[in-house]
Amino acid sequence: MGAVHAAAPTPPLENQGISDTVSQKLSGFRTIQFRRLLLKVVFGFAYGGPFGHFLHKLMDMIFKGKKDSKTVAKKVLLEQLTSSPWNNLFFLIYYGLIVEGRPWPQVKYKIKKDYLSVQLTSWMFWPIVGWVNHQYMPLQLRVIFHSFVACCWGVFLNLRARSLALTKG
Predict the structure, then answer these.
(1) Fewest Cβ atoms closer than 10 Å to its Cβ: which of 75, 145, 146, 154?
(2) CA separation for the pair 109, 111 (Å, rounded)
């Protein structure tokens, strides 16, 4: 889901490929599933990267580049209440429908059953990353820092989505 930019981002482009390759190996795949890998890279290229880029630019405009603790807390809270839930939901939908090719009723069931767990885990992880990102990273490095951390989150989301699929498959 992470997934990706944004609060619970999915990693953009190459990070999607790295996180998916690592998660495939950790899941026990003997060979890399290139179709799955390509679909994850497309997701990062078409959605994750642009979303993260424009979200950070928008946040900087809204908060006029301020980095005081009160402003950073507002940025993190805004991210966690808006883009985090959306990004995780969108990733789970994309993963189920496009990557796994499951029918909508199965994807909907999986989301109903497991989305809250993914989102709660996200809220334990991403606020800290968001705080560091907004407090200490210059605007031009935020997406890079976020993408690096999102690569790890992507491994988690891939493994989580895979394990959930295995229990239902």
Answers:
(1) 145
(2) 5
**Which pLDDT band holds residue 9 (cuts at 50, 70, 90)?**
very low
Q: What is the DSSP letter of 30?
A: S
Spatial distance between the Cα atoms of 85 and 41, rounded to a whole number of angstroms:
21
- CA-wise closest residue to 13 among 160, 150, 161, 162: 150
Dihedral of CA atoms 157, 159, 165, 168 in degrees, nearest 10, equals -110
CA distance 150 to 76: 16
The tokens for 139 are 């605007």
Q: What are 67-103's pLDDT values in tens digits?
A: 899 999 999 999 999 999 999 999 899 989 999 899 9
pTM reported for the whole predicted model:
0.78
Q: What is the pLDDT of residues 22-72, one digit of tens each?
A: 877 887 788 888 898 899 889 888 998 888 888 888 988 999 878 899 999
CA dist., res. 97 & res. 100, Å (int): 6
Q: Decide if 122 contacts 8 (C-beta within 8 A).
A: yes
Q: Is 103 helix (H, G, I), strand (E, B) or coil?
A: coil
Q: What's the helix, strand, coil split of the chain in %, to 5?
A: 80, 0, 20
